[in-house]
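Quick one, tokens below. Sequence please?
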């Protein structure tokens, strides 16, 4: 078959949430055209193997715990099959795999052409997909994301360990899982696996969970996990060798063979039915044709318009995890909206002097929720990070103990902390830990991004008897 060439205004490689948003915003309200290139599923990691399935697996355990903490409410336990079936309904998964038809329909309804296959750069404004070349009149956007990183531990890769994809697509609940890692993926996976009946051993190289957060966040999550009786946490645990004599490639989310043994540095070992690697991510750029535009594989630094550094002509953009600014789905979508607007403005010859054309929120303003039990919700800088940046800050913190939290559940236990820039009397960071505190985060995000003075926050009156009354208690503690 002869090679073919097609022309679009915008070509996006990677059809996850960031890629979808970049394409949609770049052509919105115009007659511009966009192609969305995807080698796997339209909807990307988030829709099928990350945010959506993980939260579907976590929520039933949270609801059960809340029910058990409420006198007069009976709660027997989780129906594992029903939990997995509900997860599958969100990820459009059956025995034959995932179905991305609804995402493809969305793209087509928004005048975005879906191109199946592995896309690679082929020089300036050109993308090659199989024997087809897609040429972009205005922009190419890279939104290829990241993949799970597997440490170079002898025997680990040969053991066919689970990655986050297996954990979120779990169909067989192992009796005992060893998890390498102590970050968000490790802690969330430990939470839902324990709720579904597995015993879990967390092997944490450092000496804290969720090390990038305020220290009390990791401490409270660690205490809660240990308190389940299902989870053991080993800090300072460095895997040195992995043995699995009976390995079997049984498929995603299934136990990959016989028992696995993890030898630890300094002596000792852990034996489990499965091992899950949750030790970070690596950029998906190794086979992206970067050399054709003078770039090396790896993360792709960008400016605040999301234009890739080192490529002349302002035609190449990178959004989402691949640019290594903030590896969160909602931040990738935010970047994509900015990039899409920038592409549209440049295509129309409009100036970029409006704030909407500059990505600001991924500079120390990003919100994140860790859906453990308790949840961790944070935005902006920790106290330590603020001081490292040379800011003069103070902190106010207290336990969340108000009428609303007492009414929410009998065992409510939470903690809140604000980091205040003393020079401007504004918030630069906030961290909340407790049941469902993710629903409290957007108020803090608005205060941090909007640089709202604390004197003004006195007039933002929390409703009674809501959990959000703890905001008033925080302000009172700083009087």
């Amino acid at each position: 078959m002869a090679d073919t060439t097609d022309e679009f205004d915008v070509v996006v490689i990677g059809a996850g949430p960031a890629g979808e948003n970049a394409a949609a915003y770049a052509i919105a309200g115009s007659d511009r055209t966009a192609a969305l290139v995807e080698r796997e599923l339209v909807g990307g990691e988030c829709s099928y193997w990350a945010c959506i399935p993980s939260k579907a697996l976590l929520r039933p355990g949270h609801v059960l715990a809340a029910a058990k903490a409420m006198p007069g409410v009976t709660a027997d336990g989780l129906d594992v099959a029903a939990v997995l079936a509900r997860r599958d309904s969100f990820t459009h998964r059956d025995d034959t795999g995932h179905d991305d038809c609804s995402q493809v329909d969305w793209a087509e309804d928004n005048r975005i052409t879906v191109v199946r296959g592995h896309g690679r750069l082929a020089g300036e404004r050109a993308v090659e997909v199989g024997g087809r070349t897609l040429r972009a009149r205005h922009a190419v956007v890279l939104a290829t994301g990241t993949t799970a990183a597997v440490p170079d531990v002898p025997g680990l890769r040969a053991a066919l360990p689970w990655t986050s994809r297996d954990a979120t697509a779990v169909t067989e609940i192992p009796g005992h899982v060893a998890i390498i890692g102590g970050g968000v993926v490790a802690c969330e996976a430990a939470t839902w696996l324990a709720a579904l009946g597995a015993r879990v051993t967390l092997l944490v190289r450092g000496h804290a969970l969720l090390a990038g957060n305020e220290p009390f966040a990791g401490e409270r999550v660690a205490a809660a996990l240990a308190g389940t009786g299902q989870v053991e946490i080993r800090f300072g645990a460095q895997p040195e060798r992995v043995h699995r004599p009976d390995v079997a490639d049984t498929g995603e989310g299934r136990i990959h063979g016989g028992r696995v043994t993890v030898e630890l540095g300094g002596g000792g070992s852990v034996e489990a039915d499965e091992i899950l690697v949750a030790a970070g991510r690596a950029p998906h750029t190794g086979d992206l044709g970067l050399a054709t535009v003078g770039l090396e594989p790896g993360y792709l630094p960008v400016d605040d318009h999301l234009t890739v550094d080192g490529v002349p002509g302002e035609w190449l953009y990178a959004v989402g995890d691949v640019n290594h600014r903030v590896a969160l789905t909602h931040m990738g979508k935010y970047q994509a909206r900015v990039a899409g607007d920038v592409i549209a403005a440049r295509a129309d010859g409009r100036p970029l002097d409006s704030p909407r054309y500059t990505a600001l929120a991924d500079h120390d303003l990003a919100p994140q929720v860790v859906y453990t039990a308790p949840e961790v919700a944070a935005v902006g800088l920790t106290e330590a990070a603020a001081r490292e940046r040379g800011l003069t800050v103070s902190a106010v913190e207290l336990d969340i103990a108000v009428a609303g939290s007492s009414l929410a559940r009998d065992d409510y236990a939470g903690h809140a902390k604000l980091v205040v820039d003393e020079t401007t009397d504004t918030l630069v960071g906030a961290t909340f830990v407790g049941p469902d505190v993710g629903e409290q985060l957007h108020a803090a995000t608005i205060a941090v991004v909007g640089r709202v003075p604390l004197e003004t926050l006195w007039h933002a009156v929390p409703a009674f008897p809501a959990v959000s009354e703890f905001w008033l208690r925080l302000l009172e503690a700083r009087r």
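The chain has 14 helices and 23 strands. The mean pLDDT is 96.
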